[in-house]
Amino acid sequence: MSPIPTGRLFSTDDGTDLVLTRTFRAPAADVWASVTEPERTARWFGPWEGDAAPGRTVKVQLLFEEQQPWYDLRIDACEPPRRLAVSSLDEHGAWHLELLLAESDGVTELRFVQHLDTLDGVGDIGPGWEYYLDLLVASRDGSPAPGFDAYYPSMQAYYAGLTPSGG
């Protein structure tokens, strides 16, 4: 398997957005469940625990990372089934993420957005999100889960070479 990178960068008033999309032949409510219910997020990202609500923090386990660490994830906005915004802080800096869902004629587009303060590391970040979003696809359609080696380092040059376009 040789996945093709799909991410793009868009200039914003506050920095740059890294945007990746996936489409699903499913209602938005079903895709929403895949990105918010702990037993379903466990299939492609990791389970989470805690009292989820805007302004609160949950613990998420990264099942597909070495050591399968737990980390804190703050829920900044939760507007079912259209928008989930979360943030975290780790040794790599602050992470501000949004998942935006739009449904039309039984097809839902998931728009993943990472709000970036700097383009440093985008060559490493982009392949990781491609991997996770393809894990989400595999978890939904029953296809074999991809391996990270198919994404990194082969997609690194693509992401490192991206330049932001108008938003």
TrEMBL record:
It holds the Pfam family AHSA1. SUPFAM superfamilies: Bet v1-like. Residues 25-137 form the Activator of Hsp90 ATPase homologue 1/2-like C-terminal domain. Belongs to the AHA1 family. This is Uncharacterized protein YndB with AHSA1/START domain. It comes from Nonomuraea rubra. The lineage of its organism: Bacteria, Bacillati, Actinomycetota, Actinomycetes, Streptosporangiales.
